[in-house]
Fold:
Amino acid sequence: MTDLALAVERLSVEIPTRRGVVRAVRDVSFGVSPGEAVALVGESGSGKTMTCRAIMRLLHPPARITGGAIWFQGRDLVMLAEPDLEQIRGSGIAMVFQDPMSALNPVLTIERQVAEALPPPAGPRAERRRRVVGLLRQVGLPDAEQRARAYPHQLSGGQRQRVMLAIVLARRPTVLLADEPTTALDVTIQAQILADLGRLQQQLSMALVLVTHDLGVVRRTVHRVAVMYAGQVVELAPTRELFAHPRHPYTLGLLDSVPSVDCTVPLMPILGTPPDPVGIGAGCAFAPRCPLASAECLRGEIPLAAVAPGRWSRCIKAERVGSDRGAAPAAQRS
Amino acid sequence: MPHPLLSVRNLVKYFPLPRSPVDVVRRRAQERVHAVDGVSFDLDRGQTLGLVGESGCGKSTLGRCLLRLYRPDAGEMWFEGVDLAQLDDRGLQPYRKRMQVVLQDPYSSLDPRQTVGSALLEVLTVHAIGAPHERHERIVGLLAQVGLRPADARKYPGEFSGGQRQRIGIARALAVGPELLVADEPVSALDVSIQAQILDLLLGLRRSLGLTMIFISHDLRVVRYLSDHVAVMYLGKIVEHAPAADLFAHPRHPYTLALLSAIPEVGEDPQATVEIRGEPTSAVRLPTGCRFHPRCPWKVDRCLHEAPELRVLSSGHRVACHEAGA
Structure:
């Protein structure tokens, strides 16, 4: 595992609440190589954001890591103390959030905020300005020179997200965690930012972890996908293969729930709702909603098992997923 | 059916921006947001019109004008031979229960301290629907219609998940037996597996009740699933309006093409089409000529000073673009 930029191993996060312990992240493992983009996909409450915050060691108490390891440059972040973590946050692992307005300081100019993030030595003022404008250009902000003098409220949502990217990239992080970076944006802006994010990630050979609820966003942006449900990774596969032949019933259900503009195949929604996060029992968490479920699915913990080279599924019936439907769902839609 | 249920002509809604004393002293012209700027369309009974566009294009304002939650500044809205744009509050009263709305966030439109049953009862009482002793049965029927259980009537909104709350919002809209339902981003706040459940519910209700629907969404995938016709809006104007199948198979306006190419599809990759850069211009200081020209890959000189009108390209397919071919 030495070539991985970041490796998460059997990570668990728990949140004690008045009603009981919420096991927000359960036994999550995945890795991402330099220059690779991996997506964490799931619905609200599936634990994808918690996983990211745990990697940054930015969990809000009482949420805490209860097991597992996070390997970064030969060190386990779970074991590190705050001063060491501060060295890693930003320059080693950086994170962008869904809402850039709440991450930017409303009373400082864009230039000030990007300059703050520049690695020392900052150099004379003109030099600093040149570097800031260069960064803003790199992330595709139009009229970078004028916009540098603007305040956050004078920019649109898409432009603010680009500024956030510039701030984050100033430190040249090895790993970038992007938590729903385009969810609040319009679709044409989303497409531009995703394309630019992919380009930058390749150019700088960063490792990217993209958190999203939208499988469509994933399709054109990342190399591999980890699908999360009720705090667990239920399927991990290269993007193309995941869409062509999902090997977990939840992934299949998600794909069948997204309407397509190409044709009008009837949707096949997943019935029911996700489980109560308090007191998830033994066995498969998806079983109550699963068309393939049987008694054996509820007997004991189901491991994330290899189903093909480079593919993992947390389903004992992975072989049967989609088999009753003939063709793969993606092919049906075309 | 000889007449459409709803016929909209040149509808206009502006929102004036606040003026500071300095603006008044300097005699600066009143600035305004051109939210809806001359929209016309017909909608037949039992049909669903999808309104799509990005934030700020005026689709929600148009929806609110149609429900007369806003008073339009100009234009006509004919509903069964009556121009709703001209009516005052008293005149509108009989039409209120014939037109209902489903909003994006049902939680903010439900009273957290009122049980679902009593919220529905209030609607029935206000509109004097059914005899008082029948109302309980009617509420149970409404809940069943949207896939909830009779026992849910005794619960409070906070006890439901987002999807279930949207079902309550739909039940409340249906309680008065509307003919026209305006659904403004009804599934945008929901997770995808729940979203599909609500879309199927709306589809079923439309069929069983013969509802006429205006479905507002920023998500073309969702609109495609539910609509018979689709109108694409950009900065207050309809730029393309066509039967849904036709619009998605043969989009003619460069903005529609760009929207379609930007959709994150889970199916096969779409054919490379149009990519646009930049962001929509402000709806306060509109560009001259065609509003889309600053972002348009097809623009020619004519687009800079002459605004294109909606013209019919083929049966039922209207587009507002000088360069769009048939």
